[in-house]
Amino acid sequence: MTEKTEVSICFGTLCFIMGGSAFELLSEHLDEELREKTLIRGMNCPGYCNQTSEYGKPPFVKVNNTLISEANLQKVITAVKKEVLHGADK
Questions:
Q1: Against a cut of 0.85, is the pTM above it?
Q2: Residue 77 belongs to some domain of the structure
């Protein structure tokens, strides 16, 4: 079985109110092939929002080890597609 691409969504208050709530339904925006190859989970606030000069602005999502700041559905879906299709090539 192939390892799944892991999507970790920050469920901290600031990320949630800055748009992170949209990621609760992320799986509904992925096609079936991507959905089968993706594990979506919440994460406790890692504190990135306290270091905006280094990490950017919330909301934050990690796709495997890639941090996405100012995350939106399109950015996350693009990152998931890239990982699923090209992740093994790294």
A1: yes
A2: no
